[in-house]
Write a structure and sequence with these properties.
By secondary structure, the protein is mainly α. The chain has one domain. Helices cover 72% and strands 0% of the residues. The protein contains 10 helices and no strands. Helix 6 runs antiparallel to helix 9. It is globular, with a radius of gyration of 16 Å. The chain starts with a helix and ends in a 14-residue tail after the last helix.
């Protein structure tokens, strides 16, 4: 029973649609009807402004952090802790509060991963920044970082000669698969050369 409660709590934390709430309260718009249509921070940058966008980004990251801390506070084991973190990402991507439609999960996944795997996540974030700086496409940066994450996790385990724990390895692979799946439309636009490029006023949702 406690395991199910932890997962439900993590999902509900992840489901809080900060991007939707911020756009609705501050500007009176439905974030799902403007820009990319996704309930994410960079769409808020374009529709509402950079200050609100940064606030939403921070809150979405904290959802992932909170899910892991909830599990740890309740003495969850490795598997339950990573499942709780992933449940928050699922909540962000398919929030119960908006008819199971949400953002792409990158920000919430970042918060969850940096709590569990700080070195690997920072390495992936550096790659994300490099790719975005070079191509100004958040989607491409997100895909590159997510794809690199399991590789970095394995490499870091070998470097430390400690190996990797199966729960976290499975988690990095699952996050990579989810991020790629959620960006499948972006991948098609990147391939066709029609993907929108990010600025503080315009961008794809995280």
């Amino acid at each position: 029973m406690i395991d199910a409660a932890i997962l439900l709590a993590a999902y509900l934390v992840g489901s809080v649609p900060f991007a939707y709430l911020a756009a609705r309260v501050i500007k009176g718009i439905d974030i799902r009807t403007v820009g990319s249509g996704n309930v994410g921070a960079s769409n808020v940058f374009r529709a509402v402004g950079r200050g609100v966008g940064l606030t939403v980004l921070s809150l979405d990251i904290l959802k992932g952090v909170a899910a892991v801390l909830i599990a740890r506070a309740l003495d969850a084991g490795d598997w339950l802790t990573v499942l709780a973190g992933f449940a928050a990402v699922i909540g962000h991507s398919w929030t119960i509060f908006l008819g199971f439609k949400g953002g792409k999960g990158v920000a919430t996944a970042t918060g969850m991963l940096i709590t569990l795997l700080p070195f690997e996540t920072m390495a992936a974030l550096i790659l994300f920044c490099i790719v975005v700086a070079a191509g100004r496409m958040i989607s491409l940066g997100s895909i590159a970082a997510a794809t690199a994450l399991p590789v970095v996790h394995l490499a870091w385990g070998e470097i430390r000669e400690l190996g990797v724990r199966l729960p976290t390895l499975v988690l990095t692979i699952a996050v990579a698969a989810l991020v790629i799946w959620r960006h499948r439309a972006n991948i098609a636009r990147i391939a066709s050369g029609t993907e929108r490029r990010f600025s503080f006023r315009k961008g794809e949702s995280l």
